[in-house]
């Protein structure tokens, strides 16, 4: 398929590059680092060769979220966003941007989001899971201190991409002795799915029904679990324990979009289509951690209708991100 739009596509600046070390064996680091630092050359060639018209770019992970000094987090976010804006302006027909946000300070994050949308023309934000702040437990965004941030996000009307990171060491006991489960194998999905469910359960979307959240990797496992989340022990007349008013699945279907990033599997795509509908699913690759050709060759041949391929590959992104 020609004209695809991809939106979980990462770059790094020198200050955040090392955050991506360790996700591939040492002998691949030189290649991964070169992929992360490039925007206008190899990346564009990969896009041309694989029918990708546009990438919406975002900073690598965990980057800003893992800077416990709030002032430094604000500074690095602004530096990354300014750099991204300079790159986008060279090829706005091929690249657009997501804001990196210093969520350690909800007011600063709201201001930076506003700057990125109104001054830099970004299409939304991409945040790498919880944030670390000196002296604080991991900051999850269902907390009351983030309601002002979400109000601004709602007012601006742009999507918020909740991207994975590994759980904090204090919350990783279940993985002790099994480092192979960290990262994309399992821990990323677990961490991100729980964070997404916390947002829903907190009642955030009752307060802000217009919020648009995107999660990657075919929904981080949630589509396959969606029925069970709302139907556990259905024979028991127990009061609901979450603050939100409606079943969890109803918010997931109304406030969330998912992408195919790093999960190139037709069986999983079709499950997600059955749960959410093709209008809620968007093509992505997760470059440079996954290969663009692996994503594109799988998607172009996936056993779905051409109407669904057009929606997932391009049309949903155009409409969600107001692309021309
Ligand atoms: Mn990613």
Describe this protein's structure.
By secondary structure, the protein is of the alpha/beta class. It has helices at residues 29-37, 42-49, 70-90, 106-118, 147-156, 187-201, 204-207, 222-231, 248-255, 266-276, 292-301, 306-320; strands at residues 4-11, 52-59, 95-99, 124-128, 160-163, 213-215, 256-259, 281-282. The chain has one domain (4-320): TIM Barrel (Alpha-Beta Barrel). It has twelve helices and eight strands. Strand 7 (256-259), helix 10 (266-276) and strand 8 (281-282) form a beta-alpha-beta unit. Helix 4 packs parallel to helix 5 (147-156). The structure holds manganese (II) ion. Residues 8, 10, 163, 261, 286, 289 line the site of manganese (II) ion. Manganese (II) ion is lined by residues 8, 10, 163, 261, 286, 289.
Give the SSE layout.
Elements: E1 4-11, H1 29-37, H2 42-49, E2 52-59, H3 70-90, E3 95-99, H4 106-118, E4 124-128, H5 147-156, E5 160-163, H6 187-201, H7 204-207, E6 213-215, H8 222-231, H9 248-255, E7 256-259, H10 266-276, E8 281-282, H11 292-301, H12 306-320
Parallel strand pairs: 1-2, 2-3, 3-4, 4-5, 5-6, 6-7, 7-8
Helix pairs in contact: 3-4, 4-5
The structure holds manganese (II) ion.
Manganese (II) ion (MN) binds next to strand 1.
């Amino acid at each position: 398929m020609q004209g695809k739009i991809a939106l979980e596509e990462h770059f790094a600046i020198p200050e955040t590059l090392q955050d991506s070390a360790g996700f591939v064996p040492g002998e691949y680091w030189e290649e991964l680092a070169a992929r992360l630092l490039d925007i206008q050359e190899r990346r564009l060639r990969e896009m041309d060769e694989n029918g990708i018209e546009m990438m919406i770019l975002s900073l690598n992970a965990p980057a800003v979220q893992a800077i416990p000094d709030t002032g430094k987090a604000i500074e690095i976010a602004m530096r990354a966003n300014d750099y991204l804006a300079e790159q986008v302006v060279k090829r706005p027909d091929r690249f657009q941007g997501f804001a990196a946000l210093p969520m350690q300070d909800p007011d600063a994050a709201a201001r930076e989001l506003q700057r990125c949308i109104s001054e830099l023309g970004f299409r939304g934000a991409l945040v790498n899971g919880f944030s670390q702040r000196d002296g604080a437990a991991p900051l999850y965004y269902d907390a009351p201190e983030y309601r002002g941030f979400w109000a601004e996000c709602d007012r601006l009307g742009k999507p918020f991409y909740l991207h994975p990171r590994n759980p904090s060491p204090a919350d990783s006991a279940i993985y002790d002795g099994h480092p192979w489960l960290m990262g994309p194998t399992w821990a990323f999905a677990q961490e991100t799915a729980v964070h997404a469910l916390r947002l829903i359960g907190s009642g955030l979307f009752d307060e802000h029904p217009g919020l648009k959240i995107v999660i990657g990797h075919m929904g981080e496992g949630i589509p396959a679990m969606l029925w069970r989340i709302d139907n556990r022990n259905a024979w028991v007349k127990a009061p609901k324990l979450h603050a939100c008013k409606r079943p969890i699945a109803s918010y997931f279907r109304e406030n969330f979009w998912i992408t195919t990033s790093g999960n190139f599997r037709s069986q999983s795509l079709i499950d997600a289509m059955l749960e959410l509908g093709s209008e809620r699913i968007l093509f992505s690759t997760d470059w440079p951690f996954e290969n663009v050709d692996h994503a594109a060759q799988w998607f172009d041949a996936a056993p779905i209708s051409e109407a669904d391929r057009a929606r997932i590959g391009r049309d949903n992104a155009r409409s969600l991100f107001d692309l021309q």
